[in-house]
Amino acid sequence: MIRARRIGVTAVALLAMAGAAPAAAQAAPDRQPSAARPFTAAGDGDTGLPPGWRVTGSGKSRQLEWRSGTAVPMGDARVEFYAGDRLLGRPRPGGDGRTFRLGLDAARAQDLKELKGLQVRAAGRRLDAGGTGGAAHAPGRGSLAAAQPPAPLPASKVDPGKPGPYRTTSGEYQLKSVRLPGFAEPVEMRAVVVAPQGATGRRPLALFLHGRHATCYKPHTDELPGDWPCPAGTLPIPSYRGYLQDQRLLASQGYVTVSISANGINGQDWAAEDGGAQARSSLVRQHLAHWADWAAHPASAPDAVRRAPRADLSRVLLVGHSRGGEGVNRAAMDSLYPPPADQDGYHGRTRWHISGTVLIGPTVFGQNPVADVPSATILPGCDGDVSDLQGEVYADGTRGVSRGTALHSAVYVVGADHNFFNTEWTPGKAQAPAEDDFYDDPDQRDPVCSPGTRTRLTADQQHRAGATYIAAAARLFVAGDDRVRPLLDGTGVRAPSADPARVLTHAVGAARTGGFLPDGPATVTGAGRLCSAVDPSASAACLGEGTPGRSPHFAQWETDRETGRRAVALRWSAAGSAVRIRPGSPVSLKGADKLALRVFVPPNSTGTQLDVVVTDASGHRATLGRVRVDGLPGTDRTASYWAREVRVPLTSAVRAELDLGRITALELTPRTRAGQAWLMDAWGWRPGTPAVRPAALPRVDVGRLTVKEGDSGVRTYRVPVRVSGHGSGQVRVYTLDPVTNRATDRLVTVRPGGHDIDVPVRVRGNTRYGQDLANDIVVKAVRGAVVGSYRGGVTARNDDPQPTVTVTPVADRVTEGATLKWRVNLSAPADSDFGAVFVVRPVTDGPELSTKDVDPQWLQETSGGESPDPERALSAVQNLYLWVPVPAGEVSTEVSLPTVRDQVKEQPEKLRFQLTDDDGEVHEGAPVLTGTVLDAS
């Protein structure tokens, strides 16, 4: 029996997700791409979209949709749609874990012809196989057959990974849920406490915040809903319990530790313009406020807290994993520079001091690190989630912003993945289903990151290394033990407790002085050039598009080109080809013991040697010494173009009586044959960790204004920007074109209460239907400022009704083998392409056309990959619809359906498609496409 099919839940889910919010407002980095494989269906034949892509919906509900052939686990990296190198927007996830949809108004595509070179990316990595990007998880082509780990470093004099003298006690608390701005559902206040037993006096507090992971699970199944609250029959995933090993180590050393739950944010942050950073900050500070209350009034504390020593809120370490890393960075910022009250979920006083942060595989969507709070950022070399290792910005992005006394360390862990730092995200340890986020193809194994290779860590090895370096940061930032600094500042020693992990570090800030910074005014001559970290031009970019692998230093932000974010690229064909870097003004190395350089070379290369020479303002030169730089183990799937810190003594410059207060040039001369290298910066270095006194800085927050376009005239609105705090500083403002997303930028000096960032937006009213238009800006701190809410703008809402749709037959009664045709008409032209969706309906007055009666390629393209076999009525085909685009400015278009001729004698057969509304529903009386096909025999 041939069964009639209704679009039902599938279409409702597909169409109801459409929204009119701007691309940034849909910043909902939905699912992590660790195991995504592209959907193999043919593309949309009417629009020329590549396989796996199609356009769905009509009117304001038009959406660009991509579907993966396998589930894409919920993770921390943002999933983004691109047309070539142009960011279209950030899609919303479908309920099936495979489908991603972006409203076409948010995609800034008024004309479907603009959707060329479509790509799906997450943290810079392709997830789809369409277009020119290759497979979502390309194997390590061109890599070593068996990558070798770096040689072990000398052991440090102290080992923070060793347990301390205290036994530990643990317990949990649960408080009343809180409401956070922009979130419909309350967020839980739940945490696990691990504390030392028998410790006297007030003890420092370490707070952990997990990242974005599935929120719920259904026991005895693989189902992992990302909803909040958890649906009936499912349980919350206890991600907050994933750091117990780290907590126990710190507690044994005398710290009170608490790890808080954030499932309520994870289940709702798809709608947050900043990916949930402000909400996570609010949640962290809500917990800290309670701990401040409990420290003052211990009797009011939950049992788990009363059993712990009283916490010292003047010594707080924040530890965040993935989006939790960005969350604790924002919490540190908000604790020093309060956010606008209407954006914040905590409105009390700051009664604590953040001594430092540890950020594990973090996101940094805002690229807004807090320069005056020390940080250590752990970069997992085999991260399959935040795979571009964008967290490097927490070090690089602080240079020149404030006083430079806070140490900012980057800790590269060779062979570590993203998930295994949390046991609740680790297979075999987690309560819910879990996976290794670095996708491993058993047929094409990655030489560096596939399990079992010499460089890949096991879950236990990785977690032990993570716990050790968290404890190192605590000992340096909170306890002030300078003996542990060499483990974090690029000195080149190891903590034996982390063995066999190979852990490498470099740093900026602390006791470093001067600075050869390619970001500022500088000239480069010889066998090198100033290159741009992010630039679509191959001649300007530091790493070209075809480079196998990526660099954490060059992680892309919101724009396709950034001003003033640079490095020095060296390329030589013979030894002795010098490169000279001249800063815009003399650099002072006075008081420094050594010159520290951050340099990287291609992965898997060894033995690059460079002579280092400096010149003072009088022209006197001194050769400081020779450095050797080796590449990290890497493939085209890893971000291994990462700088090693190398140092040369300034002794020879002192002997030669150079004026170290006025160094005017740095010269690097390769002493090995042809090669490449990149210089990130060079600093005067001396041992020690100076006290950090945060500067009083202005804070910038960008808001969003939504207006109706009106029926006539031109109205001018301004992007809402608030500047609070103290003093003055400089930020760079990027204005994004609402159609092309191309950015123009300018440097702006801001002052509290001022209107220095003045971005007028002209909105022209009309009576023609069109898409909403977002006029956005993004802002980044340059010098003497902090940026909280970094993206916003003015969104002009279309307020005109949709044109009505009618249908005129052109050839609706044909002989088999011919093409059925209809004309779809609009009552008025629209300002953007208008899409009408007709869904197949059962025929009620005779035989119905089957899958064998229509062109098989048309069937595959129109249904998303359905086969003609087994033969069935068209109304029984899943997802069969006609999407009819009417070009902007026009009032009609023709739609066709090709039939095929067979040798079977049969009666006339019919078909029926009916127009759906914006919610995917079919209403009585809606326009219908009907056709009859006559037998040709």
Please give a structural write-up.
With 937 residues, the chain is mainly beta. It is 10% helix and 31% strand. It is built from ten helices and 48 strands. The strands form eleven sheets. The chain has a nine-stranded mixed β-sheet, sandwiched between helices. Strands 20, 22, 23, 25, 28 and 30 form a six-stranded antiparallel β-sheet that branches. Strands 21-24-29-26-27 form a five-stranded antiparallel β-sheet. Helix 7 links the parallel strand 17 (375-380) and strand 18. Helix 2 (244-252) crosses helix 8 and helix 4 (277-296) packs across helix 6. The longest helix has 20 residues, at 277-296. The radius of gyration is 30 Å and the shape is globular.
List the helices and strands and how they pair.
Elements: H1 8-16, E1 53-56, E2 63-67, E3 79-83, E4 86-89, E5 92-93, E6 99-103, E7 118-122, E8 125-126, E9 168-178, E10 187-196, E11 203-209, E12 216-217, E13 235-236, H2 244-252, E14 256-260, H3 263-266, H4 277-296, H5 303-306, E15 311-321, H6 323-336, E16 354-360, E17 375-380, H7 393-396, E18 408-413, H8 459-478, E19 503-508, E20 513-516, E21 522-526, E22 528-532, E23 566-572, E24 579-583, E25 594-600, E26 608-616, E27 621-629, E28 644-649, H9 651-655, E29 663-670, E30 675-685, E31 698-702, E32 704-708, E33 714-718, E34 721-725, E35 729-736, E36 743-750, E37 760-764, E38 773-783, E39 786-787, E40 791-797, E41 805-811, E42 813-815, E43 819-826, E44 834-840, H10 856-863, E45 881-886, E46 892-898, E47 909-915, E48 928-934
Parallel strand pairs: 11-14, 11-15, 15-16, 16-17, 17-18, 31-39, 32-40, 42-48
Antiparallel strand pairs: 1-2, 2-6, 3-4, 3-7, 5-6, 7-8, 9-10, 10-14, 12-13, 18-19, 20-30, 21-24, 22-23, 23-30, 24-29, 25-28, 25-30, 26-27, 26-29, 31-34, 33-37, 35-36, 35-38, 38-40, 41-43, 43-46, 44-45, 44-47, 47-48
